[in-house]
Design goal:
Blueprint: H1 4-13, H2 17-22, H3 24-28, H4 32-39, E1 46-50, H5 56-63, E2 67-72, H6 75-84, E3 89-92, E4 105-111, H7 120-129, E5 131-142, H8 152-160, H9 179-189, E6 192-205, H10 207-213, H11 220-226, H12 231-245, E7 255-267
Parallel strand pairs: 1-2, 1-4, 2-3, 4-5
Antiparallel strand pairs: 5-7, 6-7
Helix pairs in contact: 7-9, 8-12
Length: 272
């Protein structure tokens, strides 16, 4: 049975590869090192990067000397990753189904992908399936509800009075977007030695570039909702966005905005 949220996600990200690479990929790059460290992705290991996007995690894993496979649900993202990381075997795949045999990998990683699936528990179980017994899994997600840089556009829309439409679903992951919830998800899915920690950093952006490559490029649900509005409403949201981001302004015209995420890791049980 097709999950309605997954259908929405395919429509959401269709054709967004270039815009994502220019904007959000720079934000999510901060957690690449910690993610690979948590999974034990070192030279000689066989690594699967799930939700690879433009291939940032896969590229770093290749640099570490790992043998890398990568998947993404959006064909444009997979095509971009394959071009960016020619040493990785990149395929199109949609969780919770992966085109690999049981116990194929020493490490599985997913950078901000688990919050984009319709069935989080089933998806983590599938990630465990392709791990060898004792292999390690590492996943990141945003702290929910969004704060810092993830809240800039949403808070501006809220202030203007833009309502969340009924046909734009909320991520099923919202209940897991906190340390206790994420840890509970790992345990329910069968992960052992699970650990969840908060990761925060300061991200430097050009405010206009962030606006153009994010909401106005229809990246993410906020972008979908905003671009449906009239030009007058969009202009008002932009004015509020400009005022809010000015609080983080730097002398050179950029802005330093906090980002807050969770890094979860654990292992497939050694006996199975």
């Amino acid at each position: 049975m097709v999950n309605a949220f997954d259908v929405y996600e395919r429509e959401l990200w269709d054709g967004r590869a270039a815009a994502y690479a220019d904007g959000f990929a720079n934000l999510t790059a901060y957690t690449v090192g910690p993610l690979l460290d948590a999974a034990g992705a070192v030279a000689g290991t066989r690594v699967l990067d799930v939700g690879t996007g433009p291939g940032v995690v896969a590229a770093e894993a290749v640099l570490r000397g790992a043998e890398v496979c990568a998947v993404d649900a959006e064909p444009g993202m997979a095509e971009t990753a394959a071009a960016n990381v020619p040493k990785a075997d990149v395929r199109v795949a949609v969780l919770p189904e992966l085109p690999y045999e049981d116990a194929s990998f020493d490490a599985v990683v997913g950078n901000f992908v688990i919050n984009h699936v319709g069935e989080p528990v089933a998806s983590v179980r599938e990630l465990l399936r392709v791990l060898r017994p004792g292999g390690r899994l590492a996943l990141t997600c945003w702290v929910m509800p969004g704060s810092g840089i993830l809240a800039l556009v949403k808070e501006a829309m809220d202030e203007v009075g833009v309502e969340w439409p009924d046909d734009v679903p909320q991520t099923p992951f919202v209940e897991y977007g906190n340390p206790e919830g994420f840890a509970g998800l790992l345990e329910e899915a069968g992960v052992v030695h699970g650990d969840v920690r908060e990761v925060s950093w300061e991200h430097v952006i050009d405010p206009e570039t962030w606006w153009v490559t994010g909401p106005m490029a229809r990246v993410g649900s906020n972008g979908v909702i905003l671009t449906r509005q009239t030009p007058e409403v969009i202009a008002e949201v932009k004015r509020v966005y400009d005022r809010r981001i000015a609080e983080y302004a730097r002398p050179d015209g950029t802005a330093t905005v906090p980002a807050h995420a969770l890094l979860a890791s654990g292992a497939r049980p050694a006996g199975r």
